[in-house]
RNA sequence: GCAGUCGGACGGUUUGUCGCUGGCAUCCUUUCGGGGAUGAAAGAGGAAAGUCCGGGCAGCAUAGGGCAUCCCACUUGUUAACGGCAAGCAAUCCGCGAGGGUUGAGUAGCGGAGAAGAAAAUAACCGCCUCUCUUUUCUUUUGGAGAGUGAGGUAAGGGUGAGAAGGUGAGGCAAGAGCUCACCAGCCGUGUGGUGACAUACGGGCUGUUCGCCUUGGGAGCUGUAAGAUCAUGUAAACCGGCGUUAUGAGGGUAGCCCGCCCCAUGUCGGAGGGUAGAUCGCUAGAGCCAUACGGUGACGGGUGGCGUAGAUAAAUGACAGACACCUUCGCUCUUCGGAGCAAGGCACAGAACCCGGCUUAUAGGCCGGCUGCUUUC
């Protein structure tokens, strides 16, 4: 498993371009209103939903930090960047699991805490979440 | 040197790994709409913030007049504009001082001003003075002194208050009073100086404070880039325009009201709207920035030369690791007592969202200049 991850990461550059960030209004509405399942690992909660597969980008994500938790935009931006970075560096966990599946997936990460966390901590929680989603996907 | 005050400018630098955004160049590919790869550059602020003023720009509305409503209010200037800014004026408060804070159209009329105080604007409670009467007492007598009652005069003194009938002093008086005089503060008139707010000289005895209504002068259409435009999709009885036609009465529009003005059922011809999701434009060359000398006390102005400098949209401008610089220390070591080295910790406020000019608020840390006070040396 470890070797495979290393291999993937070496040849697939860990990018995260605009097309991988979910921005379709209708998809987001559907995700939160009906189809989304959620699991959480404090301070992160993820809402996810299978979606028709796009060959180039099977997974799209969005990150949300409520204004209620951080009044100042500087801190909200910092958290969003940390979460995006954590996903970018670990996304091959999920991509490997979805490689043989007929569907893609959309994820929404929601921040839950009023405090800032270290990037190391967020990365650990992100790996936890992605592994759990990957397991559930394989069970489908 | 220390303390202070005013003004100005700054607010990290850098290496590595992995990324993000929009352009550019080269190449590849294409269903000619586009898509992809590589490369070298670029990519948050002094407040980007609060959204408090003022404009540009855009759309909609709009014959005209009056009233109401709202905003502004010492003067002169500055500007695209402002409630900003600059230089001034007057009053007042703080500071030894350099300086700083607050207030500022008018007062003819109407109304309010708790508690306190006799009284808050036709002032008499105590006090002071005069007179009548009664009474006590002293004296040889005329008369003197005290107490009380009543009539009157008095704004000098007391106490209350933010404010007590301009202030202080002298004359004057029974006692007093701008009653008279001198000086001072205000007001009015005249002259002089100043663009002006005002200042000043002379004359006049005209003189309570504060708030609101009110009065005067100036100004204000509404909505904000989610404005708005184009493309694609696509249709009805809705919308707009032309032509024809009915009625003179209600209704609608014209920012809230009034006057005034405009419109009108239905038919026919022509045009193309609305909703939903999306793409592109708007979207950055602008009252632009930097340098320089000139004019101006200054805000600022025009001149010359140079520069090309973010454009996201579930919202890029980063994440991680290190080095340097800077700051702090009940920490250690050294010291020529000025400091130096090591260690540990810290390194602010804060993220463009159409664009500008201001204001307000937040802000670690240091830098530069003018001036003031104290102190040391010469």
How would you describe this protein?
By secondary structure, this protein is an alpha+beta fold. The protein has one domain (2-139): Ribosomal Protein S5, domain 2, CATH 3.30.230. Helix content is 48%, strand content 21%. It is built from 5 helices and 4 strands. A 4-stranded mixed sheet has the order 1-2-4-3, sandwiched between helices. Helix 3 (73-90) packs across helix 5 (119-139). The chain binds one RNA strand of 378 nucleotides through residues 13-18, 21-26, 28, 62-64, 72-78, 81-82, 84-86, 88-89, 108, 119-120.
Ordered list of secondary-structure elements with their pairings:
Elements: H1 2-11, H2 25-35, E1 37-41, E2 44-52, E3 59-64, H3 73-90, H4 92-98, E4 103-111, H5 119-139
Parallel strand pairs: 3-4
Antiparallel strand pairs: 1-2, 2-4
Helix pairs in contact: 3-5, 4-5
The structure holds one RNA strand of 378 nucleotides.
Give the count of structural domains: 1
Catalogue the unreliable spans: 1-16
Q: Please state the CA-atom Rg, rounded to the nearest Å.
A: 15 Å
Total helix count? 5
List how many beta strands DSSP finds.
4
Order of helices and strands: HHEEEHHEH
Mean pLDDT over all positions: 71
CATH topology: Ribosomal Protein S5, domain 2
Q: Main β-sheet, in a few words?
A: 4 strands, mixed
User: What is the overall silhouette?
Assistant: globular
Quick one: CATH class?
Answer: Alpha Beta
C-alpha termini separation: 21 Å
Q: Hey, roughly how much beta strand do the residues contain?
A: 15-25%
Structural class: alpha+beta
Question: What strand order characterises the main sheet?
Answer: 1-2-4-3
Helix content: 40-55%
Q: Architecture, according to CATH?
A: 2-Layer Sandwich
């Amino acid at each position: 498993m470890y070797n495979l991850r290393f291999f993937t990461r070496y040849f697939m550059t860990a990018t995260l371009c605009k097309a991988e960030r979910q921005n379709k209004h209708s998809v987001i509405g559907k995700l939160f209103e009906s189809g989304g399942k959620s699991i959480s690992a404090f301070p992160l909660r993820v809402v996810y939903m299978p979606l028709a597969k796009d060959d180039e980008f099977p997974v799209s994500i969005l990150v949300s930090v409520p204004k209620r938790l951080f009044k100042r935009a500087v801190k909200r931006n910092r958290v969003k960047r940390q979460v995006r970075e954590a996903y970018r560096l670990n996304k091959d966990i999920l991509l490997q699991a979805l490689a043989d599946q007929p569907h893609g997936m959309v994820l929404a990460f929601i921040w839950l805490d009023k405090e800032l966390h270290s990037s190391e901590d967020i990365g650990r929680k992100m790996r936890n979440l992605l592994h759990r989603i990957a397991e559930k996907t394989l069970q489908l």
